[in-house]
Amino acid sequence: MTPMNSEQRSSVQRGAAQPGASQPGADRLSQTVDMAGATSTRHNRRSATGWILLPAIAVLLVFFFYPLAIIVWRSFTEPAIGLDNYTALFTDGVSVTVLLRTLRTALIVGVATLLIAYPYAYAMTRVSRRMRAVLTVLVLLPFWTSVMARNFAWYLLEQRGGLIDRFFSAIGIDGVVLLGSVTGVTVAMVQVMLPFMVLPLYSTMSTIDLRLMDAATSLGASRPKSFARIYAPLSLPGVVSGFSLVFIVTLGFFITPALLGSPQQSLVSQVIETRVGDLLDFPGAGALGTVLLVVTLVVLFAVSRVARPATALNQAVDRA
Amino acid sequence: MPSTKQNMGWGLRLWVLAVAVLLLAPTLVVIPMSLGAGQTFEFPPKEWSLRWYEEFFSSPQWMDSVITSVQAALLTGVLATVIGVAAAIGLDRGRFPGREMLRSAMMAPMIVPGIVVAIAIYATFLRWHLNGTLLGFVLAHTVLAVPFVITSVSASLAGYDRTVEVAAASLGASGWTIVRRITLPLLAPGIASGFVFAFVTSFDEVVIALFLQTPDIRTLPVQMYDSITLEIDPTIAAASSLIVVVTTAALLLPQLIRRRRSDA
Predict the structure, then answer these.
(1) How far apart are CA B245 and CA B31, in angstroms?
(2) Could you give the ipTM of this predicted complex?
(3) Which of A176, A226, B17, B206 could lock A168 by a disulfide, CB 3.0 to 4.6 Å apart?
(4) Mutate which of A7, A8, A130, A300 to disrupt the B interface (most B C-beta within 10 Å)?
(5) C-alpha dist (Å) from residue B200 to A217, B57, B189, B249
(6) What is the CATH number of domain A93-319?
(7) Do B224 and A149 touch (CB under 8 A)?
(8) Region(s) of chain A under CATH 1.10.3720.10
(9) Would you call B258 an interface residue with chain A, using a CB distance cutoff of 8 Å?
């Protein structure tokens, strides 16, 4: 590893040889290091970097991209080469209905979580530090709690004679059994997805300078107007991140529909699971999966200028 | 600073309270359920007992699933952390064309719909005879966990001052010594949070594990899933309650410790 040493030493010297630089700070120096790396020992550096990236590339290629490619490939080639599995989606009388139902559900869940989470995330930016810590923990608790435990809880709440049923009976509406319906799935999904919306929203909102709103009102704008013209646009990246994240995750979510939904009103993930689990119909399931994948990629591409949903969420959790 | 607190109207306060209840309360129903005595999921239970906790800790089926899950999560945590830390450093320091594309490709497991990843891995692992093995769970979960580790460590790298490394090198430290004594310790918070992410990703994962399970080996979430869909086994209430309590403690303890320290 001597080449790296001498290279870095030389860059230190170079950095020191620039007394005119007003800020010989970290950025400048590390930039110099990079430049030195790029010029003097380019080969050495590149091979070191390549080696360090290899395990991740290998694992993802073999255990993620290859299986994914195979399942897509099989949807075009089995039982015969062509689009049979895809035309079947339009002619079997079920798949289109299921796909549309899934898209509608994901849309409703996205909008509902946004409406519920937006004021909460906004409040998080306005309270005292201690209160903010409390509100953050309230979001992180469900985020880190087992998905199975949370869905089991919803199973208990939505079943016949469960708390929701009892509540509506008590106010005179009998037979509100959400279990086994798309409504039941939607209600539970909204609660399960709520942290995925709050965290990206808060992440963006915490960077908004609230004095801008005060400035607007002091210049004569009404509070609703200053919100609409200043706060809402500034919070937009968080809205887009949160919405697309919740939408995408909901599209391919299996556990909630499987536990709380019904085969009669199934969502795409249930149909895919049935085709693979019961019928071993990988090509047919693969076709549905490919459609789901394409929808996801379209959504991500559409928002890519404004937001990177997955990364935004992870970073928000990290910071919290 | 503007007077922020007075500006919060009662409407907003009530909304926040309602959302807080919505976030927290539904999950808590598993706790009274776990203390019931009945054979069904009838809620609230008519009689109370600890029998489901006893069942949870004495049933080989449940205990085996816990052991499998802990093993898979630990191994996934270690494997994904090693791979992910290396990749994050490589992505941060490498100067090569297509670097951003590579980064996006490595994030892909986060955004591909869960059910699609599950059937793809299932189909391939069937051929490779990896279904029903601990290694199968670990490899599948590692794929899902690596992006989380990369993001966590990348966040740490963004605030990383490389002049320290330069200083160490100028004092004669070798490359490996720098990595061991400077780079990794400075990245420790990011690495730790990456490990936690990876551990939980594996421990909590249901869908892939559902496909890869065999009667001989299943993870805890799969055992829970089966106990609702196949068996109506209230032991799941005890398992859920324990998970809720452990998760809550794990989240709150560091907060409380930090507060006590800052009060002192």
Answers:
(1) 9
(2) 0.91
(3) A176
(4) A8
(5) 46, 22, 17, 15
(6) 1.10.3720.10
(7) yes
(8) 93-319
(9) no
Residue bearing tokens 């990245």: B187
For position B95, what pLDDT does the model report? 81
Q: What is the residue extent of each domain of chain B?
A: 66-242
Taking only the tens place, the pLDDT of each residue in A22-40 is: 333 444 334 434 444 443 3
Which among A15, A37, A253 has CB closest to B114?
Answer: A253
Q: Token pair of A284, please?
A: 């047919």
The CATH superfamily holding the domain B66-242 is MetI-like (1.10.3720.10)
Two tokens at A259?
């536990």
By C-alpha distance, the chain A residue nearest B3 is: A126
Cα dihedral across residues B56, B62, B66, B71: positive or negative: positive
Shortest Cα distance from B4 to chain A (angstroms)? 6
Query: pLDDT tens digits for chain B (264 residues)?
Result: 444 444 678 999 999 999 999 999 999 999 999 999 989 898 888 899 999 999 999 999 999 999 999 999 999 999 999 999 999 999 988 888 888 899 989 999 988 999 999 999 999 999 999 999 999 999 999 999 999 999 999 988 888 888 888 899 899 888 888 888 888 898 998 999 999 999 999 999 999 999 999 999 999 999 999 999 998 899 999 999 999 999 999 888 877 777 777 665
CA-wise closest residue to A113 among A201, A237, A37, A45: A201
A300 touches chain B (CB under 8 A): yes
